[in-house]
Amino acid sequence: MNQKIAEYVTNRFVENGIIEEKDKAVYQYGVSQGVVILINLITTVLIGMVFGMVEQSIIFILAFIPIRIYAGGYHAESQIRCYVLSSLLIAAAMINCKLVSWNTVIGFTEAGIGTLLLLLFSPVADKKKPISMEEKISYKKISSGFLIAELFIAGIFFRFTQMKGFQSIVTALFFLGIILIAGKIKNSSRDKQFNI
User: Fold this and answer.
1) Residues 177 and 93 in one domain
2) Is residue 190 over pLDDT 70?
3) 3-class DSSP state of 83
4) Of 72, 63, 86, 49, which Cα lies nearest the Cα of 139?
């Protein structure tokens, strides 16, 4: 569906002289990715509404995305599977925030586990998104920088007893760690399958 939307939009851009025909494929890809991002943001807010946690869902996704881009981890085999798994992940994160009996020990344990996994394993490449050694070093630095910034922000939330923000960021870090482990497992089984 997003491909059809992207094609429609870029065709209108060409017809109206906004872009040149030779640049159409690049713009079509950009529009397609923009549609995917928009759908995911709308889904995140809807899931937040279902759980009565719109604020937490937004904070979660704002904490999750920057690190996810550079840390990598598990990647689904199709866009539909990615959407479904992402939606389930956000729902699971909201359940974690809502149902776990949050206290200092739980919060700092989740933060510690997520931080440790991110520092140990980031970035985790995927066959669909391979990375060079230079990119690996760069992505490690960037994801670690985001991690430090988010831990600082979570600390501020905690200090001023803004538990919704604290829980959302800590949950994002914890789930990012799980996604890295899932990516490592997926890569390991793929490597064994092909004797790499």
Assistant:
1) yes
2) no
3) helix
4) 72
Contact (CB, 8 A) for 91 and 44 = no
The residue segments making up the domain with residue 9 are 1-50
Question: How many domains does one find in the chain?
Answer: 2
Q: Which residues contact 168 (CB under 8 A, 6 or more apart)?
A: 55, 56, 57, 59, 60, 63, 93, 97
| Mean pLDDT across 114-130 | 91
Residue-wise pLDDT tens digits, 59-68: 999 999 999 9
Domain boundary among 31, 50, 69: 50
Reported pTM: 0.87
- Which of 15, 33, 50 is at the close of a domain? 50
